[in-house]
User: Which sequence fits this backbone?
């Protein structure tokens, strides 16, 4: 060690362990930058691509998550479901879901768009035979603070495909285990407002990596400064 540098064995061990942990965390975060960037690029490409026909069978909905699809079917005579949700601009309201029987296929849970909170009556939805074009999303899962759905009371907080299908009297093999966010139909300001697809996938791993590496350098600087200070005092 340099003359006058006496950090002590205990401090050296603690600083070394701290550096190993901080550098390890930084490296772990850095390793996620590439895969997350690739994922966001695939999502962007899927949203920008021309709609593809919805497959008759889709065992892995994740394989087409955020992909644009299109299908023809018939809107079933079931009561629509209002799920609490904000609009793309952050306004409080509901997403309106209804079941559509795919031609030569099963029932698709379709999100027809958003309506504001003060809108008590659900606007008229498409009926009969229609063509739905939109974005495929997997079933929603509730957050740790999200209340459970109350189907009987009409209070829905999570767009759980399976709970909605059960409410409509559908059995497991009668519906697809994903949902479709329909594009907007009609005038720009018409309700419901379709196309409510939000990509909430942050890519902050680089910032986190730099933070952990910065803390490691700070710890090293404190260790060196304390070592020289202690050496001078002795």
Assistant:
């Amino acid at each position: 060690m340099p003359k006058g540098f006496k950090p002590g064995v205990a401090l050296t061990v603690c600083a070394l362990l701290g550096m190993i942990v901080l550098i390890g965390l930084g490296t772990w975060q850095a390793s996620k930058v590439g895969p997350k960037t690739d994922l966001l690029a695939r999502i962007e490409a899927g949203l920008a691509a021309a709609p593809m026909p919805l497959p008759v069978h889709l065992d892995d909905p994740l394989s087409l998550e955020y992909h644009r699809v299109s299908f023809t079917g018939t809107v079933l005579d079931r009561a629509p479901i209002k799920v609490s949700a904000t609009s793309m601009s952050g306004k409080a309201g509901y997403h309106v879901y209804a079941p559509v029987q795919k031609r030569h296929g099963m029932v698709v849970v379709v999100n027809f768009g958003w309506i504001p909170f003060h809108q008590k009556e659900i606007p008229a939805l498409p009926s009969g035979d229609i063509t739905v074009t939109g974005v495929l999303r997997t079933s929603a899962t509730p957050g740790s603070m999200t209340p459970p759905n109350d189907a009987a009371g009409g209070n829905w907080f999570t767009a759980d495909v399976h709970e909605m299908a059960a409410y409509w009297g559908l059995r497991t093999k009668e519906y697809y285990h994903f949902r479709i966010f329909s594009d907007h139909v009609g005038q720009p300001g018409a309700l419901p407002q379709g196309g409510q697809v939000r990509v909430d996938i942050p890519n902050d791993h680089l910032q986190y990596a730099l933070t952990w590496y910065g803390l490691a350098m700070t710890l090293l600087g404190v260790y060196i400064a304390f070592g020289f200070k202690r050496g001078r005092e002795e």
Q: What stands out?
A: The helical segments are 9-48, 161-167, 205-233. The CA atoms of residues 97 and 111 lie 5 Å apart. Strands lie at 52-53, 68-75, 81-86, 92-102, 107-116, 129-138, 175-182. The longest strand covers residues 92-102.
